[in-house]
Amino acid sequence: MTIPTRTDKPVPRAQKSVSRTPKAATTSRKVTVRKPAPRRVPSSGRRPTKGKQSVARPMPGWVRWSVAACLAVVLSAGFYWFFIRPYAYRWKPCYGQKGYGVCLPCSYEVHGIDISHYQGDIDWSLLAQQRAGEFPLRFIFLKATEGGDHGDEAFCANFDSARAHGFIRGAYHYFIPRTDAHRQADFFIRTVRLQKGDLPPVLDVETTQGWSKADLQRAVKTWLDHVEDHYGVTPILYASYKFKLRYLNDSIFQRYPYWIAHYYVDSVRYDGPWHFWQHTDVGAVPGIRGNVDLNVFNGPLAGLDSLCLR
To answer: Which residues fall in a compositionally biased region of kind Basic and acidic residues (predicted)?
Structure first.
């Protein structure tokens, strides 16, 4: 039997199909973006050494001490000017006469006080004993009125008591510039009934209330004229040393007896004539609780008597 010859070629095995398609971009490719280099800023100084940092130099010790010393001087001067200087006279050694708790001005024989309701209840019997003391009190000024309608609540009782206990008495009005001067004068006249032996009426001027010098002088002169016409005597003008120089030193006021308030000085510095000097506000007088203003008259007792109403 004839075996047929196999002429068929062997069938090759199936090969895996390989895709020729290029790989998809399954992962995004990182792209590096270069930042522009910072621009160099030209420097005028030396380039710092690499690795070293600039450190602020501390302030030298002598500078700190100098600043502290200057501040101490300024603060000390301010404290002295505002808190010590106005009262330093109280602690000065007294080489002259001392009485009523203060150093009294030398060479004045006639002393007095001025009071208002601020002094409270006064022991007039004890106060009257000071008329015969080492520095006898001869006169008392009493606040009567203020402005156009305010009367001192203690005036009437104190005014009568002063005369009853042998003091030469006087009454004063506290001037309010912005209140009509005629109204103020009329109010004082209605309140104060002066008698023979009393001191002339007093106008106390301490503030301008923002008025000009001319307006203030006009109002003050109106009050003085009106009161003088009524009582028939030249009124006394009260003002501090500096206030008088600044506002009331004109010739029209020179004929009025001047009562000067001038504290913490050994003598009056005012060059013009004056009659009374209020030299302290911290006097201690038996019969009066608390501080009281002390005054002297510029002349003998006979001169004070001649000034009183006839």
So the answer is: 1-11
